[in-house]
Write a sequence for this structure.
C-alpha cells in the first residue's frame, strides 16, 4: 500500500488565523495552508507556498492524523508556524471564531477534526488522531474533550 505524507499549518496574526480557499462546484472550501508533500520536498515548503511566505518556521507540532483513503495510507502533520519574510496577500486572515466555523464545515474529517479540536482548545498539542475508516469516529491520544 502506498504511503503519503501531508502537512497543514496554523498561521496566526494576533487573534486571526490564515485560511486558504478553493472553489468546489459552487461552494468555497476553506482550509489551513498545506497539502501533500512530494518525495524529496522540504516538509514545510508546501505550507510556505500556500501561506504566501518565502518560508515558515515550525513552532510546534499540533497533531498527527492517520487514515487510509483511495488505497493509500496518509499521515498528516499539523504544525503551528511563523511566516518568514513579507506576506504576499495569499489566503484570508479570519478571526479565530470565524476560522473555527469555516473549518467546521469542511467535509474531510482528518483535516477538520484536528484543526477545530486544536483551535477550540478541545485537543492538546501533539494529539495523534487515527481513523480506522473515514466514516467512523477517530481514536485520539490523548483523549479529546467534547
Amino acid at each position: 500500500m502506498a504511503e503519503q505524507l501531508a502537512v497543514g499549518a496554523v498561521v496566526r496574526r494576533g487573534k486571526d488565523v490564515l485560511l486558504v480557499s478553493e472553489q468546489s462546484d459552487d461552494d468555497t472550501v476553506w482550509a489551513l495552508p498545506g497539502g501533500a508533500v512530494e518525495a524529496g520536498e522540504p516538509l514545510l515548503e508546501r505550507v510556505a507556498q500556500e501561506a504566501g511566505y518565502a518560508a515558515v518556521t515550525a513552532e510546534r507540532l499540533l497533531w498527527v492524523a492517520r487514515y487510509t483513503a483511495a488505497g493509500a495510507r496518509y499521515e498528516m502533520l499539523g504544525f503551528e508556524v511563523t511566516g518568514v519574510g513579507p506576506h504576499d496577500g495569499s489566503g484570508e486572515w479570519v478571526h479565530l471564531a470565524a476560522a473555527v466555523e469555516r473549518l467546521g464545515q469542511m467535509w474531510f474529517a482528518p483535516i477538520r477534526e484536528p484543526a477545530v479540536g486544536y483551535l477550540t482548545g478541545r485537543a492538546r498539542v501533539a494529539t495523534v488522531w487515527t481513523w480506522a475508516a473515514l466514516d467512523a469516529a477517530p481514536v485520539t491520544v490523548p483523549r479529546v474533550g467534547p
